[in-house]
Design brief:
PH-domain like; alpha+beta; 242 residues; 2 domains
Length: 242
């Protein structure tokens, strides 16, 4: 705020008037509110109690001395409530006008032309910011990219889990394939092998081995690899040796 006041005092303001205004503004400014410019009336005759106008990044404040300067009246308007502003220059100075969305017009006259122009420029900048808010596009894009990356990682993990399950199922199925019963083998799949030459007969198996073979056939039935009739035949034959 001090740096802004140094710039203002270089433009023909009355230092005493600026000091009086700023001392009262210290208790009026909200958090994160900064004074952008102060313009003070300068009438052709001696101006003992000039009106002034303060613009901040949040509002316009009209400052009007009362009771012979012992008190001051403050009237403020948020930038959201202001529909437009303009300057009218004359021979003895300039007028700064602004209108509200409720069609109320406020005027501060007898402002030095240079101050009125500065005031108008600052007001236009604030109104343009309201109409065209600045969006930090790079941050928005970064958030979107991070979200897409997280989704792709989740999809990859899901695919890996599915592949693991499929491999495990294949392994389990291979484990439950039984040895053929009493020399039975599908001759279409193994035409060159004879049952008696490679497999043991049921009569040569122990009771534990016969029981294990019966369990294997039950697993084949449960997984739909053999029919109920086939399982019944295998079961009947194995039980005859127990």
């Amino acid at each position: 705020m001090i740096e802004n006041l140094k710039k203002i005092l270089n433009e023909d303001q009355d230092p005493k008037a600026i000091e009086k205004i700023t001392s009262k503004l210290n208790n009026l400014l909200m958090s994160n509110e900064e004074v952008g410019y102060i313009a003070v009336q300068k009438k052709p005759a001696v101006t003992i109690l000039p009106d002034s106008i303060v613009v901040t990044n949040k509002r316009i404040i009209l400052c009007k001395p009362k009771n012979l300067g012992l008190s001051m009246e403050f009237i403020d308007y948020d930038w959201d409530d202001i529909s437009g502003s303009f300057v009218k220059e004359g021979i003895l100075g300039a007028e700064f006008n602004f209108t509200t969305k409720s069609d109320l017009t406020q005027t501060i006259d007898y402002l030095p032309k240079n101050q009125a122009r500065k005031l108008y420029t600052y007001a236009k900048e604030q109104l343009d910011i309201l109409k065209n808010p600045i969006v930090n596009i790079p941050i928005v894009e970064d958030i979107k990219a991070e979200k897409e990356e997280n989704q792709s990682q989740v999809q990859i993990e899901d695919v890996e889990d599915v592949e693991d399950v499929e491999i495990e199922e294949v392994i389990n199925y291979t484990e439950i394939i039984p040895v053929a019963l009493s020399g039975y083998r599908d001759e279409k799949q193994h035409p060159d092998q004879r049952p008696d030459s490679t497999e043991r007969k049921l009569s040569d198996l122990s009771q534990d081995e016969l029981f294990a073979k019966l369990q294997n056939y039950k697993k084949l039935l449960d997984n739909g690899l053999i029919l109920q009739g086939e399982y019944d035949n295998y079961k009947k034959e194995i039980l005859s040796y127990l």
